Structure formats: structure tokens, C-alpha cells
Amino acid sequence: MTRPRSLAATLALAFAATTLAAFALVGAYVYAGLERQVNAQDDLDIVLAARHTRRLAGELESLDAVRAHAERLTSQVLGNEALSMVVVDAQGDVLARHNVRLAALDDAPAAASVPLADAQLFAPHAAPVPANDRITADRLVTWTTGGGTPMRGVLIEAALGDRTPIRIAIARNMRDRADLLEGYRDRLKLAGALGALFALLLGYGLIRKALAPLREIVDDTGRITVDKLDTRLDASRAPPELRALVDAQNAMLGRLQQAFAHLSQFSADLAHDLRTPLNNMRGATEVALARPRSVDEYQTLLESNLEEYDRLARMIENVLFLARAEHPSFVTRQRAFDVREELERIAEYFEGLADEAGSSLRVDGHGQLTADVELFRRAVGNLLANALRYTPAGGVITLRVDETPDAVRVVVANPGEPIDPALLPRIFDRFVRGDPARSGGVPGGTAGLGLAIVRSVMELHGGTAQVESDARGTRFVLTFNRPPAA
Amino acid sequence: MRILIVEDEPKTGAYLKKGLEESGFSVDLAKDGAEGLMLAQEERYDVIVLDVMLPVLDGWGVLKRLRETHTTPVLFLTARDDVQDRVHGLELGADDYLVKPFAFVELLARIRTLARRGPPRETEHLTVGDLEIDVVRRRVKRGATRIDLTPREFSLLQLLARRQGEVLSRTQIASYVWDMNFDSDTNVVEVAIRRLRAKIDDAFPVKLIHTVRGVGYVLEPKDDA
């Protein structure tokens, strides 16, 4: 693909092309008008000369009179250098001629002294206008001489006073007219070219000026760096056409800023959460090494360290899972399964734990779902682990599946203290905990990633994770949308 | 059984060698890919543990060249668990892989499986000390006492008995018994073991289920000293 041309250049070229087209149309119209007018004038000259000559011929008595007073006939074309006339009798003998050589000069300059064939002056195809016919412009013919001179003229018959027929040819050398029109044409072309060039330059300048706000937007955008994500582009200076662009860019900046803040917070939280286990290990190890200890003490230390390693490993695994889940190339292995069966399996896994905590699990409902089973277990498992953490002794945690034509909903509900309403909108964010002070101390706590993973899993399935919490307890709702029936 | 470890990181190499030797293997350690390939081609090993990131010749290269002549089982270790990485290794002819960080007992279990070349034999009767398990009838007796177990408890006991003497990590147990392949950050397995113990061990002087602190659990007829 070729590089796209600049907007200013494209528009300026379009301007120029439009101007040129307009000039061409107007020029062609004006030129045609002039040509018509000039031709009409010339035709009129020829026609009038022919009529007068025919009338004058009628006043001459005989061929002899014609010979004697040829100037009477030729006087009709006397004043006009371009007009020529030849008068011949029925046998073709020339009775009078005027300006014939002049008219033919450019045909054969060297032949100035050679008697010209008078017939050359006449269009060979021209039929004479009969003596009684009115001479009009439509009897005129146009031709070009062998030398290339454009000619226009008429051949007429006339009768002398004694009824002797003669022929009169009147022709006009059109060279001057051709030159005139040609010059006019050239001037029109030049004017058109200059006009187009002018439009091109003017258009380019104007468009560049009109696009100045765009360059400002570009400059402003170029100045936005990571530490200035709170900058917004000024929409008030932008023309209405560009305002949508500016608004869209500002909206994008807003999203970027939010995501970036989120990410920085995430990195900070992650670093912070890595510190705790590291610090535990470091401190405990240093203290242990400060003086000789019993084997049992060393073993306890190593065991405690191992727990921290597990915590770190889990954290890394979870963070990697989240990072990968955000990548479009993440592969889910989806298959159809019975949701109730899966919920029962998960409940069974957690049953012992619930028992120990004095709570119990109940599975309700039926449903079929196509999803990645491993991820489904992970999401529900995280919710259940979370529910167990916050359910008071004696509470019943419910796992329920509902099936509607367009969605499968899985609800994990537990009784207990309602979650702080201020926390609800962020509960699926990474490192957000229901009780920051407490969960750090829970052995193998989720490090605040469990619910983020739940949301990630739902997003991978094009579904949603929601939470409601009130005096009755807390309900996490996973909605898997069904694809529309084919 | 002989094992070759190809690992350039000194600490990793050292602890792998030590751990495997203490588990009864005879271990050679190569510090780069070229040395590893040479040893693998010249000596006879039952299993090769191969790191992916190696100097001179990387793990993929070693595996590729080795597979031209040898079929020795190869388990590769990687810090990157991209699906593509795994697929690449398995396509080149690796038999198994482990992602760092891994539990040592997990490595041990994988190596044993590879060395055995095939699944453990399914026996109908399992005996550990005075504990008898009838797999077909799903009955458990300790001495003359019949013990009733729930189906999951039975699965757990059966797993421990089949791998008697082998330490199993919590992750392994969760995966084998419940098919849960994610870490739920809960002590589900501890609870399950505690309940199983209450039925199997509590009433008897000789304990069979032992906790290996921080690592996992093992079923064997020796008393906690």
C-alpha cells in the first residue's frame, strides 16, 4: 500500500481540479460564443457582398461591360483585405478578379508570378446558388486550401442585363480569424492554469490553517507522558468536527489513567505482599542463626519457612494466572458438563473444612453448562473458600445453580456480617480484602487475589461476577451467558 | 537407579543431587548442555532431569540431539510455564515437565513414575503393617477391626497405600483424590488427613499415617520416634 497523501495536499489538489474544471467549462462556453459571433459577422460580410455583387452584375449589360467595369463588381470586396472575388463567364473564362493572388499567397509563395488556377479558390464541391435563389448564410461553405489556409465563401450565379449568365465566387481568407481564436484559446488555457495554481496554493494554505487545531491536538497528545495521565485535551478550542475526536481521546486517557493507576497500585500491593513472607523468613532465620538451637527448633524454622515459600509460590502462580488471563491468546478448554455434579464435587472437597468450622454446605438446583471445568472449579472453589472464611459457626453455605434460556447462574451464598458497602464495587479487584487486618494472619490467605481470579475466569467465559451483601448475608453470583440458539 | 541432572544453577543442582541421593538414587550432575548431552549419550541413565535454560546448549537442544539416538525418559524443569513452552518440550520428546517452584516430593514422584515406565500395578489387596485394604470390596481392616470409611476417605487411604513409603504433597493429594488442580489456600487436605487418622490410627498404638512437616504425608508402618 502506498502512504496516504496528506489531507491538505489532497484537498488542495481537489480544489485545483475543481477550479480547473470550472475554468474549462466557462472558457469553452465563452470561446464558443465568440467563435459564433465572429463567424456570424464574417458570414454576413460575405453574404452581403455576394448580394450586392449580384445586383450590380444585373446592372451591367453584357460580358463586355463586365470586362470594362470589373471594378464595379470587385468594389464590393475592396475594403476588406481578407476578401477575394472571381467572376467568370459560362465557359469559365475569368472576367474579373480581386485579391486572388493575395488569398492564395500562403499556398504557394513561390508561385506569385504563376497564373493561379482560379478554381483553386473555390471549394470544388460547392454547387453555385442559382441566380434566382436568395443568398443566405447557409449556402456558405468552408474549406481548406491545399496549403492549409482555412477559407469560407460562396459561389453564386448571376445574370447580366442581357441575361448572360455569369458566376461569381466570393471567399474570405479565415487565417486571421483562426489566429484570433487560437490566441484567445491560449489565453483561456493560461488563465485556467494560473487559476488552478492559485486555487491550489490558496487551498493548501487555507486547509493548513484550518487543520491547525488538529496539529495542536497532536502536540498536546505528544506531551502526555505516563506521569501526566491526568492531562486532558482542550475540546473548547477544537472545531466541532474534531471535538468528537478530542472527546474520544480524553475518554481513552481516562481509561488509561484508571488502568495505569490500577496497575501501579497492583505492583505496589504485590511488592508489599511479597515483603511480608520474605520478612518473616528473614527475621526468623536470622534469629535462629544468632545462637545454636536444638534440632527441633531448626526443623520448626524450616517448616515455617516452607509455609512462606508456599505462600510466595501461590502468589506468583495467581499473579501469573491473572496476567495470562488478560492476554487474548489465553486458551480455555470448554466442554459441556452437569453443573450440579460439579458443585457437589466442590462441596465434597470443602465439606471437611466446613465441618471443622461448624458450618455446612448445601447444593441446590440443576443446570447444564459449557465451560472450562478446571477454571469453573477454581472460581467456585475460591468463592467457597471465601464464604467459609466469613460464615459464623452454625451457618449454612448454599451453592445454587439456576438455568434460564439465555444464562446459567451459579450463586454462592453465605450468612454473616454484611460486607462494607464502600468495598463492594472494588471487591473483585486485586489485593482487596474484606478485612485487611485479619486476612494477613490467615495461614495461606488468598493474598487478595481469589476474587480477582473469579472475575478473570468469568471474563474468559464472557460472563460476569457480581456480589450482593445485606443483613441476610452475602451472595456471589456468577452469570454464564448462553450463546444464542443457532 | 541412575539419574542425570543437567542444571547450571549451583544451588538447584546441589539440592537436587542431595535430595535424590538421599532418596536412594545414584546421581550425576552436569553444569551445562554440552556436558549433559555427552554424559547422556555415553552413560546409561534411568531418568534425565533437564533444565531448559542452560549455557552452551539449551535444554531444547540437548533434548533434540539426545532423541536422535536415545529414548531415556526426560523430565524437564522450567521457570516459564507458557503453554507454548510446554507443548514445545513435549513435541521434542520430553516425557514430563515441572514448573519452578515445585515441591521436591512432586519431583520425586514424577521421577519414580518415569523410571517405572508405566502406571503402578493395580493390586486388589494392599497391606501396610497390620492395615489391610480390599480394593475390590472397598473394605478396610486394621488387625481384626473393621474400619468404615466414606468413599473419599477410602480414595485417600488407597492413594497413600499405593504409594506407601512415598511422601505425597497436599497438592498431589488434592489432585488425585478430588481432582482439584488449583491451590485453594485452604487446609482441606489437613482436615481430610486428620479425619482419616481418627479412624485409622487413633485407636492403635502403632501409627501409620505420618506428617512430614511442611512437605506432606506418608503412609508407612513405622512409629513416629
Automatic annotation (TrEMBL), chain B:
The modification 4-aspartylphosphate is found at D51. Keywords: Cadmium, DNA-binding, Phosphoprotein, Transcription, Transcription regulation, Two-component regulatory system, Zinc. Gene3D superfamilies: 3.40.50.2300, 6.10.250.690, Winged helix-like DNA-binding domain superfamily/Winged helix DNA-binding domain (1.10.10.10). One of its GO terms (cellular component) is cytosol. One of its GO terms (molecular function) is phosphorelay response regulator activity. Residues 123-221 form the OmpR/PhoB-type domain. PROSITE patterns: OMPR_PHOB, RESPONSE_REGULATORY. CDD domains: REC_OmpR_CusR-like, trans_reg_C. Member of the two-component regulatory system IrlR/IrlS. May be involved in invasion of eukaryotic cells and heavy-metal resistance. This is Transcriptional activator protein IrlR. It comes from Burkholderia cenocepacia. The lineage of its organism: Bacteria, Pseudomonadati, Pseudomonadota, Betaproteobacteria, Burkholderiales.
